Q: What sequence folds into this?
């Protein structure tokens, strides 16, 4: 075992980050016969893709949707034999004002036309990982310092291990890389400033999922969509499994980061709000899961704690091209040539990185 581990500590291409972009890049390298290793800091793969499991169903705590105009997502879902289904949007939406008064809004379905994956987005990650040899993937392996040499890059891990690679692809948000990785020699200030300036999409968000036996609100002609001025959930949607074997509602938490710290108080307030919106039965879900991405050190930095109100303009900044003679490259959704920030962007970024690495 020790010698196998030793042998795995050198590679042509080291992918740092096992989210959608890192895994997609790994699949492309695998298909092209390129020697690679993928490391992830967490003890799981998927990054911002994460599901809560309850009674055999998976509920998205990160991304839930993709959209019909996203060819790479459609292709991947098809190739991995996954089933997509339309976001539930039938029925009336609800609007709660800042005094907690609730009104019905007929014919309003803000996420109509969005698609979900049966089994949750984690099913995508599981199927992708299953196509890759296990010995190529090291979880629980956080990169801490990257040192450039003439022959390649040496990457130090948090537990003291080293991986020597000819080239490194950072499939992590640039802002997170700037805040959490050491670079020797230091990267140019222009590069570091640009990295720190790229907001990590949705990193300041928190999501709550309430799980029930059935999607009972549908019987009352409600879609599960709601907007609230009062909170703590600002925007809610139906998150039930495709086969209706259970019911679920999810909401984005509209409170500032500091006001989300008291978990018990937050849960109580969410239950009360669900009751105001969907009736007494909604107040007592079988399970209530909360994921605060802003508090996750492998997603968000201090700069991500303030909410974003618009989708940033993403893309590969010129300052991040040709770093360390091309031995250091970015490959996460925030540098995608198109659909930056989204799942489709993660796949687009991996595609662009693979073109570099797989070039003859
Ligand atoms: C709440 C929420 C809702 C969202 N909703 C949607 C949606 O509906 N549709 C959509 O298209 N997009 C959505 N997104 C965005 C989507 O999640 C991202 O576009 C996508 O998951 C990014 O993938 P990635 O691989 O580029 O980055 P990440 O998923 O962030 O992966 C980066 C990986 O790097 C690892 N890592 C970090 N630091 C280190 C280190 N030092 N060493 C080793 N590994 C490290 C992390 O553990 C992580 O696994 C949402 C995001 C959130 C948080």
A:
């Amino acid at each position: 075992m020790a010698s196998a581990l030793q042998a795995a500590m050198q590679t042509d291409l080291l992918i740092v980050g096992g989210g959608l972009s890192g895994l997609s890049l790994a699949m492309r390298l695998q298909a092209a016969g390129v020697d690679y290793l993928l490391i992830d800091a967490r003890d799981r793969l998927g990054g911002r893709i994460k599901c809560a499991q309850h009674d055999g169903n998976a509920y998205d705590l990160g991304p839930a949707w993709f959209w019909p105009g996203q060819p790479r997502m459609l292709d991947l879902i098809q190739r991995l034999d996954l089933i997509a289904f339309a976001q539930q949007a039938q029925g009336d939406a609800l609007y709660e004002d800042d005094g907690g008064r609730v009104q019905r809004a007929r014919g309003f379905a803000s996420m109509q036309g969005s698609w979900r994956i049966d089994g949750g987005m984690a099913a995508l990650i599981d199927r992708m990982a299953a196509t890759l040899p296990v010995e190529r993937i090291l979880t629980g392996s956080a990169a801490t310092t990257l040192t450039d040499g003439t022959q390649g890059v040496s990457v130090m891990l948090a537990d003291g291990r080293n991986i020597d690679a000819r080239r490194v692809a950072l499939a992590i948000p640039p802002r997170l890389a700037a805040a959490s990785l050491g670079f020797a020699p230091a990267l140019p200030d222009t590069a570091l400033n640009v990295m720190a300036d790229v907001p990590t999409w949705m990193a300041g968000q928190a999501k709550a999922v309430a799980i029930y036996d059935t999607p009972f609100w549908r019987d009352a002609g409600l879609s599960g969509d709601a907007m609230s001025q009062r909170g703590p959930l600002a925007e809610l949607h139906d998150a039930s499994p495709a086969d209706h074997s259970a019911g679920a509602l999810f909401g984005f938490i509209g409170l500032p980061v500091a006001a989300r710290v008291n978990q018990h108080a937050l849960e109580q307030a969410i239950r009360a709000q669900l009751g105001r919106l969907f009736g007494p039965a909604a107040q007592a879900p079988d399970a209530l899961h909360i994921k605060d991405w802003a508090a996750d050190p492998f997603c968000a930095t201090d700069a991500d704690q303030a909410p974003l109100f618009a989708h940033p303009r993403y893309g590969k900044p010129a300052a991040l091209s040709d770093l360390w003679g091309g031995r250091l490259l970015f490959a996460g959704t925030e540098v995608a040539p198109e659909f930056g920030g989204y799942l489709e962007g993660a796949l687009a970024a991996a595609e662009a990185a693979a073109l570099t690495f797989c070039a003859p």
